[in-house]
Amino acid sequence: xxxxxxxxxxxxxxxxxxxxxQASPFCNIDCQYCYLPHRxxxxxxxxxxxxxxxxxxxxxSIIEEPITFLWHLGEPLAVPIEFYEGAFNLxxxxxxxxxxxxxxxxxxxxxLINPRWxxxxxxxxxxxxxxxxxxxxxxxxxxxxxxxxxxxxAVMNGIRLLQEAKIGFSAITVLTNFTLDYPExxxxxxxxNNILDVAxxxxxxxxxxxxxxxSEDSTIRRYKRFLANLLTLVAQDGGRLKVREFxxxxxxxxxxxxxxYNTMVEPLRIxxxxxxxxxxxxxxxxxxxxxxxxxxxxxxxxxEVPISSIFENSVxxxxxxxxxQGVSLCKQSCSYWDLCGGGSxxxxxxxxxxxxxxxxxxxxxHKKIVVDVLLDHFEQVSSTTQVx
Length: 388
Prior knowledge:
By secondary structure, the protein is an alpha/beta fold. The protein has helices at residues 47-59, 81-98, 115-124, 136-142, 152-164, 183-192, 217-236, 244-254, 314-333, 345-352, 361-387, and strands spanning 17-21, 67-71, 102-108, 127-131, 170-175, 197-202, 242-243, 270-273, 279-281. It has a domain at 17-254: TIM Barrel. The chain is 40% helix and 11% strand. Strands 7-6-5-4-3-2-1-8-9 form a 9-stranded mixed beta sheet.
């Protein structure tokens, strides 16, 4: 799952534009909560598509820098290094003309990392995000290979190679209801393995993943206890573990702004390209949708039209109008508005089939609960301090 505030992106919002590139839809493993529908297709993005993407992105006055190119929507390292050598040579050639402030990142399952990849990552200074769900008894329940075998050993081997090479990385952990009983085990795993920059997703209803283990109210309550316990552990350890959910929400709580920053509802803050050159904006997860009503969320093809044409595209107009209606509804009806900014359009669509709605399971579990846990924690700390 994509998490645009965290995947190989630290600190928060160092980019003005996030360009998500699908080198290939293929993935070498078979996570049981994955939302991507074409993980067995091995087709790759062509040099012609790549060149047009770089020319359009770098040459466009409506694309703000710094720009992060995030290779994702499939396992990027399942594509040979030679593919990226060609891609980055094209990128270098184009950027010699435009000199845009930009960088590249991989969001990877880490199972394919080897010394050759390490050399390439170091040479090109590529940002890295790794997907790991914790200790083996948690991770291997859902993150399995195509033979049904857990991938934890392979992931940890990749992480060790990154650490030995002193390559920094962030980690994404997908939580299921099973994980919620083990905050201490999860915390110990991160600390013992020197994984100190983490973010959480839940097993959301998205794309081909039609259910979530967070659908029950009892699970939401367990999630609150899980986060509260984890926050206590983080605080007792002096904040050594940086958890995205805590520090981004805390920053929002402390902000004086009443116009929260939400990249997912603003056009061209996120720009997505599939391997065929079809492009869209807003949430990358919408690439996994097969909606006839929204024409698969294709808002143009880079071989046929420039990025600027997106504003005249009928799909874009329809989606943008409905997203704004949903944002307005959130602003009118939700007391968490200042800390959110309208939620995730992809969650709204995959849960309800619409964008012009407000609360979703994902925001109830993953945004509101985090706010409540933080406020409860600081109230408790304040009470304890006053007593002393």
